[in-house]
Amino acid sequence: LSWIRHRDIHILTVGGYTYTSDQRFQANHHMETDDWTLQIKWAQKRDAGIYECQISTQPVMSYFVNLNVVVPSAQILGGPDLHVDKGSTINLTCSIRFSPEPPAYIFWYHHEDVISYDSNRGGVSVITEKGDVTTSFLLIQHADISDSGKYSCSPSNADVASVRVHVLN
């Protein structure tokens, strides 16, 4: 039994032997069921595509599998620009989707600096709701002109999402 990646017609495994230098790939044989499984550790977007399980019978039998790799993504709702009035509350909502598990942490940034919830500024809080879709709300009370600028949501398991906030007089 062989596993072949169609993107580059690369033979990945034959029986229990691996024919790729990428150590994330491994064929597993389950003796009790006589099933063969191709394991790809730490799947990446580039691993998506057609894989062929080929059995060396006469004639050759093949089974094709289409692998979709879903990458967690973060998005700040209402972007890329948000306008708020001076003195109002800035409410930023970061939504993390397509994640097999909720992020271990989510950092918020203003410009390039981590937002500290116990800073002298005060009035800054974060509420995070974890689930199939994890949502983090950044609340900044009494918005001032100095609160304008780039805000970023940086979850542990997805790329950073950013928005530009404009505090208007």
UniProtKB/TrEMBL annotation:
<dbReference type="GO" id="GO:0032589">
    <property type="term" value="C:neuron projection membrane"/>
</dbReference>
<dbReference type="InterPro" id="IPR003599">
    <property type="entry name" value="Ig_sub"/>
</dbReference>
<dbReference type="GO" id="GO:0050808">
    <property type="term" value="P:synapse organization"/>
</dbReference>
<dbReference type="InterPro" id="IPR003598">
    <property type="entry name" value="Ig_sub2"/>
</dbReference>
<dbReference type="InterPro" id="IPR013783">
    <property type="entry name" value="Ig-like_fold"/>
</dbReference>
<dbReference type="Pfam" id="PF13927">
    <property type="entry name" value="Ig_3"/>
</dbReference>
<dbReference type="InterPro" id="IPR036179">
    <property type="entry name" value="Ig-like_dom_sf"/>
</dbReference>
<dbReference type="InterPro" id="IPR007110">
    <property type="entry name" value="Ig-like_dom"/>
</dbReference>
<dbReference type="InterPro" id="IPR037448">
    <property type="entry name" value="Zig-8"/>
</dbReference>
<protein>
    <submittedName>
        <fullName>Neurotrimin-like</fullName>
    </submittedName>
</protein>
<feature type="domain" description="Ig-like">
    <location>
        <begin position="72"/>
        <end position="164"/>
    </location>
</feature>
<feature type="domain" description="Ig-like">
    <location>
        <begin position="1"/>
        <end position="68"/>
    </location>
</feature>
